[in-house]
Amino acid sequence: MPDKPSVIRETDNDARRQARILLRGARFAAIGVIDPETRFPSVSRVLLGSDIDGAAIILVSGLSAHTKALSADPRASLLTGEPGKGDPLAYARLSVQCVAEAVERDSESHMRLRARFLARHPKSALYIDFPDFRFFRLVPRSASLNGGFGRAYILSEDDFIIGKPNGDLFDSEQKTLLDLGERFPNLASQIATELHKAAPGKWAFCGFDSHGIDIIYKDLLVRHEFAAPVETQEQLFLELPNSAYAVP
After folding, report:
1. Domains contained in the chain, number
2. Using CA atoms, how far apart are residues 240 and 236, in angstroms rounded to an integer?
3. How far, in whole angstroms, is CA 235 from its chain's centroid?
């Protein structure tokens, strides 16, 4: 008998781009962990951020069940992608298998993640410095992208992780974002509302990596991918206005 045709499509750059947007553009996610006592899968909801290399980051209390689970078994899964009206299965979603890495509170990584997380989730300032809270980096190992009917893809770690991000580009990330806002005062709102059809408002840049930039307004978040990756601040300041006119 002839082999049945595979329902999995070949992963191309459009699929990689959609997967990055679903992961790095998500404010929250469902997280699946293994309960250390019952060994049953356990699911919760977490606020989501991203590191400069594309890894997901979460801020969790040491008292939560999923923190205890990750400390016992670092394997986890994330589900992102918000449905709209109608059939929820008609909308794109991404399931990512990750390995969790605990971040020490007195490390440079903690300070970097703290700044990035606060920029995306300002209300977390109420508890981010509590002594029992800590960050985990969730490093993708594989992922399943369902981009809609008949659009299924399998992705690998290399499709998400930026191998060697230029540290100089992120040493003064918050200052760079302020400079962007001063040099291009209307660009964040223009990208969010005109390209991504977001609601009108006072949108602002809140974080970036080599592949794209995050734009925030109140509890709304838009992920804008660059037309080409950037490695320096000069490239960022040139690419962002140019990519604003590319098809999102």
Report:
1. 2
2. 6
3. 22
DSSP 12: -
**Based on the domain organization, do 77 and 89 belong to the same domain?**
yes
> Rg (Cα) of the chain, in Å, rounded?
18
Amino acid 45 reads R
| Cα 38–chain centre separation | 30
Q: Is residue 148 classed as helix, strand or coil in its secondary structure? A: coil
pLDDT single digits (tens) 12-56: 999 999 999 999 999 999 999 999 999 999 999 999 999 999 999
* Cα distance between residue 175 and residue 180, in whole Å: 9
Strands 28-34 and 220-225: unpaired
pLDDT in tens, 47-92: 999 999 999 999 999 999 999 999 999 999 999 999 888 888 889 9
List the domain range (segments joined by +) for residue 81: 1-162
Rounded to whole angstroms, how far apart are CA atoms 103 and 37?
A: 24
